[in-house]
Predict the 3D structure of the following.
Amino acid sequence: MKTILGFSFLFFLSLWVPSKLNAQGRDFEKRMERLNAEKIAFFTQKLQLTPEEAEKFWPVYNAYQKEKTENQKNKINLEKKFRNDYGSLNDKEIEKMSDDYISYIQKDAELSTKYHQKFKKVLPIQKVMRLYQAENQYKAMLLKRLRNQREKNNPRY
């Protein structure tokens, strides 16, 4: 009888957990879509993009973000690996990791240079400079929102 109850519990658990994970995944996707729409509206307003400029700009900007995000993921994974394996790494492995880390930083700079040239081809130079300001403003806005949300959820009394 205990075995049947145990198997029944595991069966229902196996049905429930994936549905919860899917729901969490869908919630995350919805939040990301909402953030992306907000970012597009924010940049379009800050840059005062015409429809023609927006049509040319967004594919270039999205490609830039994709490459930049991939590089950041690699850098973060390297940091996690170092943090998790620190005690078991020898100097040669640490040197390789530090060299790779600097390579990721260098690649960020190369991406900025590469896409700066592309942005200048699709936007007037004033709007290219506004883009850089808008990126900083958008990041600051998100950080402030996150900070406010954390303080709301975890008040310091």
